[in-house]
Amino acid sequence: MATLLFNSNKSLKSLARETLKAETFKKPYTNETTKDKGFYLVKDEGIYLMNAYDLEDGKTASSEGLTAYAQRFNPKYDLKGDLWERTHEVSADDFAEFIPMEESQLMRVIEGGNIKIVLSPTTLEVWA
Predict the structure, then answer these.
(1) CA dihedral 81, 86, 87, 89 (to 10 degrees)
(2) Exposed (0-12), middle (13-18) or buried (19+): which is 107, by Cβ within 10 Å?
(3) DSSP-assigned letter for residue 62
(4) What integer is the mean pLDDT of 100-106?
(5) What distance lies between CA 59 and its chain's CA centroid?
(6) CB 6 within 8 A of CB 115
(7) Closest by alpha carbon to 112, among 1, 10, 26?
(8) Residue 62: its pLDDT value, please?
(9) SS3 category, 74
């Protein structure tokens, strides 16, 4: 089981604000869309949340400040050099997972709340 904490910051608040405004969201690894609001939880070089809705051409989650790293999983601040090992403990594979968010959760994040995600091999729990 892994617990990921996303502390309130400018990027997380912006991601929540823009997610609240968006109307259509993409499911990862498919061509399916949903009206359910949410983020992508991504594990690659680090672990982060990012937008699950389309951006205008030429814009990216990074360029728009829509990438929020989990505490201890940001490659920019990996001072010990053990990020690969820590991300591997969460999952041996890279992934993107759609994380549904209720409007009330998004409002709490916009107002400065954190997000906590607990992952197990069969469950995913989100607090915001």
Answers:
(1) 150
(2) middle
(3) T
(4) 97
(5) 18
(6) yes
(7) 10
(8) 85
(9) coil
Tokens for 47, please give them. Answer: 């672990």
Topology given in CATH for the domain delimited by 2-127: DNA Polymerase III; Chain A, domain 2 (3.10.150)
Least confident of 52-56, 63-67, 121-125: 63-67
Distant-in-sequence, close-in-space partners of 36: CB < 8 Å, separation ≥ 6: 25, 100
Which whole number is the average pLDDT over 70-87?
92
Task: State how far the Cα of 60 lies from the Cα of 90, in Å rounded to an integer.
Answer: 25
Domain boundaries, the chain: 2-127
Angle CA 64–66–70, to nearest 5: 145
Taking the model in full, what pTM does it have?
Answer: 0.94
pLDDT digits (tens, 9 = 90+) for 109-119: 999 999 999 99
Sequence-separated (6 or more) residues with CB below 8 Å from residue 21? none
State how far the alpha carbon of 88 is from the alpha carbons of 44, 46, 97, 98, in Å. Answer: 10, 10, 16, 20
Specify the DSSP class assigned to residue 53. S
